[in-house]
Amino acid sequence: MQREGVFREMKQRRSYEKPSERRIRERAEAIRRARKLARKQAQREGTAPMPKRSSWPTQARPMQPSATAPRS
């Protein structure tokens, strides 16, 4: 439902939106969707770089000495 924009639309309908503002918003949304589609197609074809993956979850962190470990 979130992907289809139902929640966003419900939130927008809580208050009145002028017709001119609605047209501007809808055009901006259409442009955003078209750019996203073009970017995805370019990535599939190999003409655009793939998005960088964050290396945070895969980074190895150095082990911290435990406070409860017995000392020799």
Jot down its keywords.
72 residues, mainly alpha
Write a structural description.
The protein is mainly alpha-helical and 72 residues long. The chain is built from 2 helices and no strands. The longest helix is centred in the middle third of the chain and has 27 residues, at 19-45. The protein is elongated and about 75 Å long. The termini are far apart. 0% of the residues are buried. The model has no long low-confidence stretch (mean pLDDT 82).
Describe the structure concisely for a colleague:
The chain is mainly alpha-helical and 72 residues long. The protein has two helices and no strands.
Helix tally equals 2
Strand content: under 5%
Rg (C-alpha, Å): 24 Å
Shape: elongated
Total E-strand runs: 0
Percent of residues in helices comes to 40-55%
Task: Characterize the biggest β-sheet.
Answer: none
- Strand and helix order: HH
- The unreliable regions are none
- Report how far apart the termini are: 59 Å
Structural class: mainly alpha
Average pLDDT reading:
82
